Amino acid sequence: MTRTAFFFFFLAAIADPAQAQERLRVVTTTTDLRSLSKIVGAEQVIVSSLVPSDQRVDEYQPRLQDVSILKGARVIVRAGSGIDPWFDKLLARAAEKNGRSGIERGEPGHLDASLAVAKSDPLAVSAGFARTRRGSREGSSPHYWLDPKSADAITAQIVETFSQADPANKKYYENNREQFLLRLNAKIREWDAQLVQLQGQPLIAFHDDWEFFARRFGLNFVDFIATRDRAPPRRGKMAALEKLIPEKGVKLIVTETNQPERHAQRLAARTNIKVVELAGSVGALPNTDDYISMFDVNVRALVSAFDKK
To answer: What's the pTM value of the predicted model, to 2 decimals?
Structure first.
């Protein structure tokens, strides 16, 4: 084929996508799930996420353009019905505008990642988490993806769902997951060794999003500045923390990029301890563009802050 002929073939493929190889269209609610979906699907998928990395998934307000993002999707990967409850209404609106496409709840293209994790660890993760947002404020932390080991169960379900939608590439998806898990498991051993000096050390966090991360690496969060409903801490709570910090020997306060800084900074200044900011989602901080790099950055930040305490 001459260069000229190839050029016109390329233009035709753009004009008529059916002439080009069709890739699986995937939409996720979070950047973490987008990263894991892209790891499994690689060149055979096009993945979009709805919630920006600097926003909390439970507080996200869907935009008008989100309905258009869902158009043509053959698979959706959501964080969980108790974590992204707004997503059901968005799916309903998308079905009204775009027609039903097999990504609605109960359909083969609808993947709830929390259910995948619940199968492997039913005591740590409640499949529904909470029936309402009010209920989630006092229940178990829903941020299961901050335990890197959860990616094992999540990617297994992603492979199964992708393979149902695109059976011709099943082996490709399986191989991608296998290579990812080899790298991830090696990294978990590395992170565990790096964090050994922090194991059991008393820490404070803005709130308890880090429960799963702490359980995986043996970290000890003795208290939290705010409750999960995002209400600012009461004056009495801050006074109690000022007393608790020297009593327990706390050296670090853990915050996230989407949390107000003033409370943690004020508490740190009054007690002469450090604040370390971590990425709660892929992309929330520089150099956290994929799932593994997010943990790399967070572990380095914790170790560095602890060494300089």
So the answer is: 0.86
Contact 263, 206 (CB under 8 A): yes
Report the alpha-carbon distance of residue 136 to residue 128 in Å, rounded: 10
The tens digit of pLDDT for each residue in 123-180 reads 444 434 443 333 344 444 678 999 999 999 999 999 999 999 999 999 999 999 999 9
Q: How many CB atoms lie within 10 A of CB 85?
A: 16
Distance between CA atoms of residues 126 and 206, nearest Å: 23
Phi and psi at residue 28, to the nearest 5°: -115, 160
**Backbone torsions φ then ψ of 250, nearest 5 degrees:** -70, 135
Q: Is 200 left (phi over 0), alpha (psi -120 to 50) or beta?
A: left
CATH superfamily of 14-181: Nitrogenase molybdenum iron protein domain (3.40.50.1980)
CB-CB contact of 76 with 28 (8 Å): yes
* Burial class of residue 93, CB neighbours in 10 A (0-12, 13-18, 19+): middle
Domain boundaries in the chain?
14-181, 195-307
CB-based contacts of 230: which residues, under 8 Å, 6+ apart? 59
Do the domains at 14-181 and 195-307 have one common CATH topology?
A: yes
Residue pLDDT, tens place only, 172-216: 999 999 999 999 999 999 999 999 999 999 999 988 889 899 999
Tokens 């009495």 correspond to what residue? 236
Radius of gyration of the chain (CA): 22
Nearest CA to 184 among 291, 281, 94, 287?
Answer: 291
Architecture of domain 195-307: 3-Layer(aba) Sandwich (3.40)
